[in-house]
Design a protein that fits this description.
This protein is mainly alpha-helical. It has helices spanning 2-23, 34-49, 60-81, 89-94, 100-127, 133-162, 166-179, 192-195, 198-210, 218-242, 246-249.
Amino acid sequence: MFLEHCRSILGLSLSLAKVNFKLRNEGTYLGMLWYLLEPLLMFLLLLYIFSSRMNEIKHYPVYLLLGLIMYNLFSSSTIHSARAIVDNAAFIKSIKMRYEPLVLSVVLQFIFTHLFEIAVLAIFMIYFKISLVGLIFYPVLLIFYGIFICGISFALAAIGVRINDITNVWRVLVSLMWFATPIFYFIKEDSKQFLLNPIAHFILAARDLVITGRIPPFWLIIDVVILSFVSLAVGMTIFNLSKNKFAEFV
């Protein structure tokens, strides 16, 4: 019964994600290329500004691009999830439906986009003669990263029903977190900044896998797993405690 319930939610979430993914830039001249244009322009700008880091950090362009697209996945998914319930108020009031797919589909939509970005990353890896073997294991990390993002997204979606300004507040917080995340700079693993920033754990693990081609340290793997399921547990708890009153507030 539980597996059937999960399968139903996942199936509906995938269907909604596919539709939203196709509609997002339908009718534009560049179409799906818009999914890649923003991160690539940001990447080129940062690479130009911090070009001096190329001598300090090995394979810096790939180092920068990987950190950038991973943070984009987090920021885009969580910001849009904050309004996942509110923006579907018409459906919620008119038909009886599960609310979880409305949030999960947002995360899946941006994971689809992320896969395009990973393809671009692979091109850069080939250009800089970095082995692609690490990308084979990256999907495993992406699953845990997705779980982590889902937890935060469910919490924000539930809070967003009651607090309309949560999207703007979260957007500001995400901008501040961007500077506290080692995207364009390097921090040591024992740094307090690293320990207090959960996103940094995922990015560091990804760089170990993709760029250096090695398995992350055991303690980092444990951190990633714990952060993922703690985030999901907290997010789903907040969501489940609130969802019975969604129809009243939207």
